[in-house]
């Protein structure tokens, strides 16, 4: 393809990590054709972001980074060429959208000015904002970034990305690095559709960098799978998803939690005693910046968790699901209503999203577990054996007892945190987005671990997540939350087969799935 | 206060209000830079008094002709009274160094107590303690120190008291900020949900994380405190003559600066060298945490 | 509404700090063995005269009332009487303040400029940044008197380019402001202006050194942090050059911490001016203060501390307010 918008040839990027060379990219070649949407899929550390930055000519890591190979955009060398040419290409040919809409806009500059930073007219900025679905753009251009929601900020970022210096011009390539990862499911769906529309309207190419094959499946023409700085596989989307060639791609596909597909074999849960009852729980928080005013995050929520069952609360950010969990854990006191745990059920234990920071950084895994065992009345001489047993239960080597959290990987941290929770022999595990910070392959393993533990030990699970796919894999019962209320509740089969509430339907529709392509 | 304090540091983009330290709790590891810094401080703390003992002449001992130029007999010459400048400089420096350590140690203790109580308490206690701390911080430190010494009468002990008065609020702020960050971290929630007592949560799951960073921060401040002590002594607030003190020696030597520059330059230069060693060690730490 | 409310709350806290300051000064003064009434009335005064002086100073009342009495006197500009000069402390301060003001303001401007340059250069990778880092640590470690002595030896003794001290009274006009730079400009007196500048260069440079380094390093590290953010990456991806991005996005976001440290440095400079004025025989408050220290003249010391303290608190307030203006998140909540 001689008419490629961007061409990467044998790109090698080597960082200097305090003296040790580290190869982030090991000879990557990739062409992007005009009007093509290429999804670059990989887990963390695969080098996908480094590749995106090289396309933008923003080489990370400072002057010690060594680069060989070529990166061309519109015929200009973006890594070796003169800075002036690179800047010209960035002004006219490229657009960039980054992951976190909270940090990708300058907090001290009004929205409108940021959109037309490359010298476009005010009218052009207005048009771009309108096109990107920002309501009332005429007023919004005068806003500061912090006055917009996350979704709107990402729309503003995209508006800035499509507003090239050339009046009326749209860049020929947009590099979008995890543009939807920080967003709620429904907003994510809208933003993905916006990218597709931009391509259709302007014929620009898009490089969509993502960790999620489901997002890639939504709009990509072609999928490129990367790991450890190398391209493992690339090809048309349908082909890669249906007939993956490389073992790594197959692993990614198999481990991916998806809302499509059959439910896992149901475990028979006998209607047991309630181990946790939340009744009419109301919670107010003081409103930020407004002294004396209250913000109500929970409007009378009822939850009844029975022994041995797995109840998953599904909802988007800010719906109050984490607060509910903290009330159940006894970390917050409800403003109204009651939270009851019968003494026989033991103290509920929490599993957190950020596993690493849920472990005390300066204590070894052994001391963190032993401390719990001591509190539970296990005699000192029995503790080492019990620690080893617990670690075995969560699939960790007993030798890891001596490690501190920073010596473990993210997945290992989450396993250690689960072991620590089990050390208190709880009747209930409260899990707050336990896998959303983990790579897909690890996420599936941790979800399965929790499920196994429930089946083998009979511990009840109350798990909150934004991801219906996680719910599908582990729930016996699902409750859907929005705006501090539970709007729908039922057995997992029922929620997926015949959702009743419009909000549940929206969530199901917006969840990225391979089903559309892969069947 | 804190002239030239190496520790001045704040780069929180999300929160532009003054915050001196952006230390991520628990992330201050015993990396090489921190070790170097702590070693330098420890080494000087031990070596300076030994060096002071080994000096050829005593603090007030007259060993020769006034204004002997630096040379073989007296490495840094003699002063206006014929005392050995080198001996006096090292003796004075050793005292100042220990003084600086005392100031910082007291500051850390006071700051740790007030900061931890404020950080772990509810809104009311926190507000009261921090308003008090902020009021101290808002006062012009050097001037307050000066007033305190002037009122208590010039002596080395009073100078130390004066500097402690203006120095502890920094540590209280740091400790309190760290405690507030730490107590919101998931691992503290995890400990609380295990049903541990507040005392256990604070001492085992919060304070160790604070202590590490505060000790590192504090060890980097020795150079800055040395300079403050010398400044006060230079103005005439310090141990009265004939005690050997860097600041007062420099001030006395300044009278003869054009005829016998070494009398003033020697203490000033040695102080510069020691402050620089301490500050460079601190700078290395800061660069890692930056 | 956000802005006004913020400023109002800062005014309130400024007043609070002033109360603490005056209270501290008063409290320390009262702890002394020396009796201010005896100072006022004279060593040989009769018991009646002493009692009268006591009443005049409000010393016959309970402590808190005494303090309010003292506040009242402060508000009328009454700072007591200096034992050394036998003058009203306030009139002494009036005489010496302009010299110190001129020195500190010029040094402050130099420190800001120097800090800005050091911070921006140091924020970029490369050998120059390393050099800047080295210079700022070294500069922050240098005692003021060392720098002053070295500069004096070179520029006065060896080269003879600059005077050893003083303000250059011979030629200068001291009307209407008492700030020589301005007065000589007003009188269009070139020779006197040059003389004033010559006398000002060394002390102002020495006084500016340490604050410039402190401002520079804070600006450097906050600018580095800012330049690593996504919005800067985003701006660079739109084709902005390094200087343009620093100017448009970097500085504005990085300036907050640098500004607050600049505020703190004012207090360092006020303290440092005492040393500088001694070294360069600068006829300002610092010299007045060191004489007062030598004579244990506590009213004079307290007076100077109060006046400089007020100045410092005021400047801190201005710095805080500037930060609200720079950062929209502080003045326009969601």
UniProtKB/TrEMBL annotation, chain A:
Report which superkingdom the organism of origin falls in: Bacteria
Where would you say this protein principally sits, based on its record? membrane
Gene3D superfamilies for the chain = P-loop containing nucleotide triphosphate hydrolases (3.40.50.300)
For this UniProt record, the keywords arranged alphabetically read as follows: ATP-binding, Cell membrane, Ion transport, Membrane, Nickel, Nickel transport, Nucleotide-binding, Translocase, Transport
Pfam families on file: ABC_tran (PF00005), oligo_HPY (PF08352)
Its membrane topology is listed as: Peripheral membrane protein
Domain (ABC transporter) ranges:
6-253, 276-508
This protein's assembly is summarised as: The complex is composed of two ATP-binding proteins (NikD and NikE), two transmembrane proteins (NikB and NikC) and a solute-binding protein (NikA).
Question: Which family does the record assign?
Answer: Belongs to the ABC transporter superfamily.
Quote the protein name from its UniProt record.
Nickel import system ATP-binding protein NikD
Q: Which organism is it from?
A: Winogradskya humida
Print the organism lineage. Answer: Bacteria, Bacillati, Actinomycetota, Actinomycetes, Micromonosporales
TrEMBL record, chain B:
Q: Where are the transmembrane segments?
A: 36-55, 97-120, 132-153, 159-175, 214-239, 259-281
Sorted keywords for this record are: Cell membrane, Membrane, Transmembrane, Transmembrane helix, Transport
* The keyword Transmembrane is assigned to this record: yes
Q: Start and end of every ABC transmembrane type-1 domain?
A: 93-282
Membrane protein topology class? Multi-pass membrane protein
Top-rank taxon, per record: Bacteria
- Where's it found, cell-wise? Cell membrane
Instruction: Write down the Pfam families for this protein, in alphabetical order.
Output: BPD_transp_1 (PF00528)
InterPro entries from the UniProt entry: BP-dependent_transpt_permease, MetI-like, MetI-like_sf
Q: Which residues form a coiled coil?
A: none
Family the entry assigns = Belongs to the binding-protein-dependent transport system permease family.
Q: What is this protein called?
A: Cytochrome c550
UniProtKB/TrEMBL annotation, chain C:
Boundaries of each ABC transmembrane type-1 domain copy?
97-323
Gene3D superfamilies associated with the record: MetI-like
Residue ranges crossing the lipid bilayer per the database entry? 7-28, 103-122, 134-156, 200-219, 258-280, 300-322
Bilayer topology annotation:
Multi-pass membrane protein
Looking up SUPFAM superfamilies in the UniProt record yields:
MetI-like
Q: Does the keyword Membrane apply?
A: yes
Instruction: Name where it's found.
Output: Cell membrane
Lineage, top-rank taxon, reads Bacteria
Going by the UniProt record, its keywords in alphabetical order are: Cell membrane, Membrane, Transmembrane, Transmembrane helix, Transport
- UniProt keyword DNA-binding present: no
Q: Name one Pfam family in it.
A: BPD_transp_1_N
Task: Show the InterPro entries listed in the entry.
Answer: BPD_transp_1_N, MetI-like, MetI-like_sf
Give the main location. Answer: membrane
Protein family according to the UniProt entry? Belongs to the binding-protein-dependent transport system permease family.
The entry's protein name is: Peptide ABC transporter permease
Q: Which organism is it from?
A: Winogradskya humida
């Amino acid at each position: 393809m001689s008419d490629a918008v961007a061409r990467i040839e044998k790109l090698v990027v080597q960082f200097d990590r305090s003296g040790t060379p580290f190869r982030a990219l090991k000879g990557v070649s990739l062409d992007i054709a005009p009007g093509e949407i290429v999804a670059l899929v990989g887990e963390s550390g695969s080098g996908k972001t480094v590749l995106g930055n090289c396309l933008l000519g923003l080489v990370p890591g400072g002057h010690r980074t060594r680069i060989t190979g070529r990166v061309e955009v519109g015929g200009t060398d973006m890594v070796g060429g003169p800075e002036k040419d690179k800047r010209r290409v960035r002004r006219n040919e490229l657009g960039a959208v980054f992951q976190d809409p909270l940090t990708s806009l300058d907090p001290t500059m009004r929205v409108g000015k940021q959109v037309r930073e490359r010298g476009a007219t005010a009218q052009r900025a207005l048009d771009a904002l309108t096109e990107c679905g920002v309501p009332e753009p005429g007023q919004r251009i005068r806003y500061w970034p912090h006055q917009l929601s996350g979704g709107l900020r990402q729309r503003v970022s995209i508006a800035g990305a499509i507003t090239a210096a050339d009046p009326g011009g749209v860049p020929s390539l947009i590099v979008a690095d995890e543009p939807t990862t920080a967003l709620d499911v429904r907003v994510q769906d809208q933003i993905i559709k916006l990218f597709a529309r931009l391509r259709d309207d302007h014929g620009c190419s898009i490089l969509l960098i993502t960790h999620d094959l489901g997002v890639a499946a939504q709009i990509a023409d072609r999928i490129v799978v990367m790991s450890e700085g190398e391209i493992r596989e690339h090809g048309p989307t349908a082909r890669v998803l249906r007939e993956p060639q490389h073992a790594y791609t197959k692993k990614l596909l198999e481990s991916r939690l998806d809302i499509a597909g059959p439910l896992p074999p149901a475990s028979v849960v006998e209607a047991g005693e309630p181990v946790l009852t939340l009744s009419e729980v109301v919670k107010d928080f003081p409103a930020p910046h407004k002294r004396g005013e209250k913000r109500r995050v929970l409007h009378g929520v009822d939850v009844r968790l029975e022994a041995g069952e797995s109840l998953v609360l599904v909802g988007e950010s800010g719906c109050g699901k984490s607060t509910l969990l903290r009330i159940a854990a006894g970390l917050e006191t409800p403003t109204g209503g009651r939270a009851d745990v019968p003494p026989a059920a033991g103290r509920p234990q929490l599993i957190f999203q950020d596993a690493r920071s849920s472990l005390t950084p300066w204590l070894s895994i052994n001391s963190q577990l032993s401390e719990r065992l001591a509190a539970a009345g296990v005699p000192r001489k029995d503790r080492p054996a019990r620690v080893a047993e617990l670690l075995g239960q969560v699939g960790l080597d007993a030798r890891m007892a001596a490690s501190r959290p920073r010596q473990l990987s993210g997945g290992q941290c989450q396993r250690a945190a689960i072991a620590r929770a089990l050390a208190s022999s709880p009747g209930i595990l409260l899990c707050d987005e336990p896998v959303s910070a983990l790579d897909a392959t690890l996420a599936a393993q941790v979800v399965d671990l929790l499920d196994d533990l429930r089946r083998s030990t009979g511990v009840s699970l109350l798990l909150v997540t934004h991801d219906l796919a996680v719910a599908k894999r582990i729930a016996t019962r699902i409750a859907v939350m929005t705006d501090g209320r539970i709007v729908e509740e039922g057995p997992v089969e029922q929620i997926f087969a015949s959702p009743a509430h419009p909000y549940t339907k929206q969530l199901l529709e917006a969840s990225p799935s391979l089903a559309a392509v892969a069947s | 206060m804190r002239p030239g304090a190496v520790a001045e540091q704040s780069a929180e983009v999300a929160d532009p209000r003054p915050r001196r330290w952006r230390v991520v709790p628990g992330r201050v590891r015993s990396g090489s830079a921190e070790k170097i810094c702590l070693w330098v401080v420890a080494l000087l703390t031990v070596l300076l008094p030994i060096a002071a003992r080994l000096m050829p002449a005593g603090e007030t001992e007259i060993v020769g002709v006034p204004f002997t130029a630096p040379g073989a007999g007296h490495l840094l010459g003699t002063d206006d009274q014929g005392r050995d400048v080198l001996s006096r400089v090292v003796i004075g420096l050793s005292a100042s160094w220990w003084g600086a350590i005392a100031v910082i140690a007291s500051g850390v203790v006071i700051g740790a107590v007030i900061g931890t109580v404020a950080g772990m308490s509810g809104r009311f206690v926190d507000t009261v303690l921090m308003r008090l701390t902020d009021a101290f911080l808002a006062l012009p430190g050097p001037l307050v120190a000066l007033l305190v010494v002037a009122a208590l009468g010039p002596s080395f002990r009073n100078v130390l008291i004066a500097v402690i008065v203006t120095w502890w609020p920094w540590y209280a702020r740091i400790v309190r900020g760290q405690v507030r960050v730490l107590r919101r971290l998931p691992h503290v929630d995890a400990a609380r949900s295990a049903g541990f007592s507040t005392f256990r949560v604070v001492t085992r799951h919060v304070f160790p994380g604070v202590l590490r960073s505060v000790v590192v921060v504090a060890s980097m401040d020795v150079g800055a405190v040395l300079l403050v002590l010398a400044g006060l002594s230079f103005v005439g607030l310090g141990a009265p003559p004939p005690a050997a003190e860097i600041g007062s020696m420099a001030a006395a030597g300044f009278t003869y600066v054009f005829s016998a520059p070494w009398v003033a330059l020697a203490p000033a230069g040695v102080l510069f060298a020691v402050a620089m060693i301490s500050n460079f060690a601190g700078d290395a730490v800061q660069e890692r945490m930056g | 509404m956000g802005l006004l409310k913020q400023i109002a709350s800062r005014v309130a806290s400024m007043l609070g700090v002033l109360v603490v300051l005056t209270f501290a000064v008063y409290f320390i003064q009262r702890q002394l063995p020396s009796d201010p009434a005896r100072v006022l009335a004279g060593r040989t005064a009769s018991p009646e005269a002493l009692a009268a002086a006591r009443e005049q100073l409000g010393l016959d009342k309970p402590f808190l009332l005494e303090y309010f009495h003292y506040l009242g006197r402060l508000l009328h500009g009454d700072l007591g009487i200096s034992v050394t000069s036998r003058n009203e402390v306030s009139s002494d301060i009036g005489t010496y303040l302009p010299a110190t003001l001129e020195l500190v303001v010029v040094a402050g401007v130099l420190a800001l400029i120097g800090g800005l340059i050091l911070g921006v250069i140091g924020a970029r990778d490369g050998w120059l940044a390393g050099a800047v880092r080295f210079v700022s640590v070294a500069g922050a470690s240098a005692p003021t008197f060392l720098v002053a002595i070295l500069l004096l030896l070179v520029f006065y003794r060896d080269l003879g380019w600059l005077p050893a001290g003083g303000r250059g009274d011979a030629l200068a006009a001291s009307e209407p402001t008492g700030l020589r730079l301005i007065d000589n400009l007003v009188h269009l007196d070139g020779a006197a202006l040059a003389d004033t500048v010559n006398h000002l260069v060394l002390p102002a440079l020495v006084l500016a050194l340490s604050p410039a380094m402190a401002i520079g390093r804070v600006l450097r590290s906050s600018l580095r942090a800012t330049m690593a953010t996504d919005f800067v990456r985003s701006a660079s991806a739109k084709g902005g050059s390094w200087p343009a991005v620093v100017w448009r996005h970097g500085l504005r976001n990085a300036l907050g911490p640098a500004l607050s440290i600049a505020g703190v440095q004012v207090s360092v400079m006020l303290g440092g001016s005492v040393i500088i004025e001694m070294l360069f025989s600068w006829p300002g408050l610092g010299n007045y203060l060191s004489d007062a220290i030598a004579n244990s003249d506590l009213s004079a010391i307290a007076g100077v501390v109060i006046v400089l303290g007020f100045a410092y608190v005021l400047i801190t307030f201005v710095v805080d307010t500037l930060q609200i203006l720079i950062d929209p998140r502080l003045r326009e909540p969601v």
